[in-house]
């Protein structure tokens, strides 16, 4: 038997155990990947396939991060932008579900119609999946590539990084083990290695002024969103004190910077199959006051039910195979534990464990409250009690997801910064290593009391984008800080742009790209900042990565821009001929990325079109709510705040709005 095959089989046997013994491993590698998220796994797989010696260090005891931790409803944005190992992963999942034997509680034929985004047969990609299936696929990819994985390898965050000048020479974990390598990748959600290596970073939100953005900093939602929920312990009585996690005043001026992060939650896997269902129990430390805002929201929303419909709330029931769910936050008061994420990024390991447990208690308590508190309407209680934890998921963690959804923690300040202007197409990275295409998305950051004593919400936004490139320099630290580290997860981005980048497929692609870049650098010991982009691009394309948006081919970016503006011109022409627009030149000139348009003009146009073509409305806010209800826009919040007298709207967003408005005109599809 060939020697390399003996070695591979030996490593395979090690990987089939829960953990590789750290003292059985070499201490020197071409690459150390710190963090067993999906990005970390893909980075290690890429390095191994390239022939580099690589080790994957996971601070906890589970691999895959959110991809295996309950987030089964993949946030793809546009599936055609997913490539490389990420697409390989989703195609392996697709192949798994082609096997009839893997359907235990429903058939594939029964499942497919239950959600329009679950499978793409043309791409042979299965975007929705059970957590255990994701774990199995990850394990297969690791085993096939025979690299060592060490669990419980938490970085010593006091003195765990050694450097020679601006190069990391080794890292030490809390158990005293040291790992030396030529290059390092930090693939954690928190950026602990990056921080300990002395690389600059930010926690929280920048000011809108910092990068001339519109969605950054404090972002107050319209008052009507929570007007039916009193913030006081005794409804309407300020002297009774505030309910939990509600601030006494707005955290800062609109658009101003702060150190707060958007809310975290668990992506719960639930099932309604009786023989596979474990009932939700009342957690230790249960506090009904935590759910008072939920109760008041229910009382003010008589039609609300769990689920995914337009009037649904409380939590989603997005269908996964075999009658399971990926249950996420839904609307205002749900599974997001608003205000409890702020300390996570800089917290010690012990403090993070405490925050994790607080989130678990809150989430488990929420489900118990909704299913058992007599103040909750009976029809809601009955629906919630139909659902429980699956017996066959997270069997080594009490059937509870192991990964807290750390949506955002540290963000590096590297050689370049992704901003809103990249997402709108005004700025285009010339060194693309992956595409982001999911909407700019932030969950709530704060709850506070407004000047008139009403409950106010801030921090959330959701704004669609067209696919945009993420550049290599954004995963690269500044040269003077570190020249042998790449950071594909806590990359250099503003808070608002990170809202699109932070999706699991993008993280996987960035992880693979980071390992590919290091493979090039390693050939001559170069700094990561000196990797020739032409070489990296060629290799990534060979690996099946998608680097250029379909609407913006690399060979002809100007032509793509003209095509985009052409579709806007068609929409403007239709609206002008119908009498809704009097100055077509104004709209075609300004309805494009990088331009700003009068909020008054946008609001008046929308009010007219909606009132005549859908239903009469009294004001601009109602007009955009109708568009949201009809599925023509994903969220009315952005427009309600900007399409008003004195407001301004991004021209790129207006262009998309014009196309949707023109589609309402008679004779249009």
UniProtKB/TrEMBL annotation:
<dbReference type="InterPro" id="IPR036188">
    <property type="entry name" value="FAD/NAD-bd_sf"/>
</dbReference>
<feature type="signal peptide">
    <location>
        <begin position="1"/>
        <end position="22"/>
    </location>
</feature>
<dbReference type="GO" id="GO:0016491">
    <property type="term" value="F:oxidoreductase activity"/>
</dbReference>
<keyword id="KW-0411">Iron-sulfur</keyword>
<keyword id="KW-0004">4Fe-4S</keyword>
<keyword id="KW-0560">Oxidoreductase</keyword>
<keyword id="KW-0408">Iron</keyword>
<keyword id="KW-0732">Signal</keyword>
<dbReference type="GO" id="GO:0051539">
    <property type="term" value="F:4 iron, 4 sulfur cluster binding"/>
</dbReference>
<dbReference type="Pfam" id="PF12831">
    <property type="entry name" value="FAD_oxidored"/>
</dbReference>
<protein>
    <submittedName>
        <fullName>FAD-dependent oxidoreductase</fullName>
    </submittedName>
</protein>
<keyword id="KW-0479">Metal-binding</keyword>
<dbReference type="GO" id="GO:0046872">
    <property type="term" value="F:metal ion binding"/>
</dbReference>
<dbReference type="InterPro" id="IPR039650">
    <property type="entry name" value="HdrA-like"/>
</dbReference>
């Amino acid at each position: 038997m060939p020697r390399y095959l003996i070695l591979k089989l030996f490593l395979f046997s090690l990987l089939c155990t829960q953990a590789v013994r750290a003292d059985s491993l070499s201490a020197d590698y071409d690459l150390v990947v710190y963090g067993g998220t999906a990005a970390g796994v893909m980075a290690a797989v890429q390095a191994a396939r390239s022939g580099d010696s690589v080790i994957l260090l996971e601070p906890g005891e589970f691999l895959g991060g959110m991809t295996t931790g309950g987030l089964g409803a993949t946030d793809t944005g546009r599936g055609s932008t997913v490539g490389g190992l990420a697409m390989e992963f989703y195609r392996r999942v697709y192949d798994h579900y082609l096997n009839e034997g893997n359907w235990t509680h429903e058939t594939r034929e029964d499942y497919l119609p239950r959600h329009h985004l679950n499978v793409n047969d043309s791409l042979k990609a299965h975007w929705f999946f059970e957590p255990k299936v994701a774990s199995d696929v990850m394990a297969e990819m690791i085993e096939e590539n025979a690299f060592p994985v060490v669990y419980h390898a938490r970085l010593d965050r006091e003195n765990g990084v050694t450097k020679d000048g601006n190069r990391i020479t080794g890292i030490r974990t809390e158990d005293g083990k040291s790992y030396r390598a030529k290059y390092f990748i930090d693939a954690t959600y928190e950026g602990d290695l990056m921080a300990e290596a002395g690389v600059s970073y930010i926690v929280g939100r920048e000011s809108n002024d910092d990068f001339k953005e519109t969605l950054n900093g404090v972002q107050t939602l319209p008052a009507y969103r929570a007007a039916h929920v009193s913030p006081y312990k005794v409804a309407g009585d300020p002297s009774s004190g505030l309910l939990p996690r509600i601030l006494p005043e707005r955290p800062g001026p609109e658009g101003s910077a702060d150190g707060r992060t958007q809310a975290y939650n668990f992506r719960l896997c639930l099932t309604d199959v009786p023989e596979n269902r474990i009932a939700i129990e009342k957690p230790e430390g249960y506090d009904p006051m935590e759910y008072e805002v939920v109760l008041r929201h229910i009382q003010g929303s008589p039609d609300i039910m769990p689920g995914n419909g337009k009037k649904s709330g409380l939590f989603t029931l997005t269908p996964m195979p075999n009658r399971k769910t990926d249950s996420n936050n839904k609307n205002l008061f749900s599974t997001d534990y608003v205000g409890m994420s702020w300390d996570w990024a800089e917290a010690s390991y012990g403090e993070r464990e405490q925050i994790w447990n607080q989130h678990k208690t809150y989430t488990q308590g929420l489900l118990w409250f909704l299913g058992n508190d007599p103040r909750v309407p009976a029809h809601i209680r009955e629906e919630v009690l139909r659902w429980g934890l699956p017996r066959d998921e997270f069997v080594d963690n009490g059937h509870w997801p192991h990964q807290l959804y750390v949506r955002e923690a540290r963000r590096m300040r590297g050689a370049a910064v992704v901003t809103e202007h990249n997402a709108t197409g005004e700025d285009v990275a010339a060194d693309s290593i992956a595409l982001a295409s999911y909407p700019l998305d932030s969950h709530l950051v704060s709850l506070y009391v407004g000047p008139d004593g009403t409950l106010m919400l801030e921090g959330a936004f959701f704004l669609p984008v067209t696919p945009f490139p993420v550049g290599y320099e954004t995963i690269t630290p500044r040269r003077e800080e570190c020249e042998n580290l790449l950071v594909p997860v806590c990359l250099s981005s503003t808070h608002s742009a990170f809202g699109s980048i932070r999706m699991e497929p993008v993280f996987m692609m960035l992880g693979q790209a980071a390992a590919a870049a290091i493979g090039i650098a390693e050939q001559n010991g170069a700094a990561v900042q000196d990797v020739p982009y032409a070489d990296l691009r060629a290799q990534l394309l060979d690996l099946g990565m998608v680097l250029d948006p379909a609407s913006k081919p690399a060979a002809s970016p100007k032509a793509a821009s003209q095509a985009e503006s052409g579709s806007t011109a068609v929409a403007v022409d239709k609206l002008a001929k119908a009498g809704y627009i009097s100055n077509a030149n104004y709209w075609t000139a300004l309805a494009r990325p990088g331009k700003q348009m009068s909020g008054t003009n946008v609001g008046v146009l929308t009010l007219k079109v909606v009132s005549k073509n859908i239903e009469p409305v009294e004001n601009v806010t109602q007009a955009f709510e109708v568009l949201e209800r009809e599925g023509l826009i994903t969220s009315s919040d952005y427009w309600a705040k900007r399409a008003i007298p004195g407001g301004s709207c991004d021209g790129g967003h207006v262009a998309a709005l014009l196309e949707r408005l023109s589609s309402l005109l008679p004779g249009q599809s």
